[in-house]
Amino acid sequence: MNAWEQVEALRFPGREFDSSTGVARFHYALGDLVLTETVDFGAPSVAHPALERVLDLLYVAASTSYYKIAAPKRVELDGVALAEGALPWVRALFREGLGEFAYQNKLEYVLDLPIEAKETAEPPAWVHTPSGAPLAAVGGGKDSIVSMEALELAGLEPVLFSVNPNAIIRGVMAVSPQPVRTVRRQLDPRMRELNAAGAYNGHIPVTAINSLIAVAASVMHGLGPVVMSNESSASVPNLNWLGRDINHQWSKGLPAEAHLRDALLAHAGLQDAYFSLLRGLSELHIAGLFAKFTEYDEVVTSCNAAFKQRDASERWCGHCPKCRFVFLALAPFTGRERLLHIFGTDVFSDMTQLPGYRELMGLTAHKPFECVGEIEESLVALRLLTEHPDWRDAPIVRALAAEVPALPTDAEVDAAFRGDGPNVVPPRYLEALNALGSPR
Fold it and tell me: Which residues form the MurL N-terminal domain (predicted)?
């Protein structure tokens, strides 16, 4: 028997927060093994009654990094008491947020993982709607850049935010004149050793963790709502397994956003403290808006391979699903010369990319386990490229156009740019986004 199979539950021995330094420590127990995560927010500027309760939620969200080590068959919320209204979020966090992890490791029971709450907390005695400057999460790609620009141009004076920013993210934030706030998150240093010893590994709902770090930072400094840049396609699953939808981007999707907003209100008394500005838009719509801002061409990237480099010397690997999709999404709006300058390579001239593009078009397998758009969006982009003088004769474009059963109709193309998908964006922020105009 694998040693990890003997661990019966993930437990929560307790957490600490030093209000003078802004350092939080979260402890997690897997049998006799106790692991500690550290999050350094920096010294708080204000005291707020909601802070400790936001940290409760963060304590639970960050636990998914440690749950996956042994994948025990239950979670015991023994060291943290949440309001009853926050428990649906906890169940979804583990059962859906770890769906890809369960699928890849063939751990069926995770989809129905028991969450044992030994006690619950009373709902907070307050309801607070953050009204200060928005805290805008920056990831280094086109989406957060569109949000940054929309907020800035509308005079909402965003504070740019990142957890453990690397050279890419710092470079993107440096283009903007807006102030920056960062937080340092450190996993228990024994994690690498445990993985090398045979611990389980896989995808976790990291956006849920970073979102709550952002909400805590906002509360600590008297700022406004946390503004994310997750789009409509994040809600679309990659595949169905055992009757359940498995979504690589679950923690970026609308259901996860709704769960977290409910938990923030139920447990921390925070209303409208968190939303995604781009929720109602398609990836293509966002790509068209990004194309309006050339000043980020030298620093933007969405490539995960680039994010693993210390110096970000190569911003695009040019061979991964994200590189393929972003190249596809931007091509109709930037033209060939500008896009080759951004990427440093012509992906559409490399026929070894064809199998990857077939996946994006839904011709083979399932949508890659990556943050890429819907199959329908890829097909719309292809239709636009077949009509674009810079791209219609590109080898990849010609090959795909010959293979897809049918290109999207005019109505289907128009639908990709309506920008009216379900969202919970407050009116003043929706006005800021709409002020950027049409993507085409």
Answer: 2-277
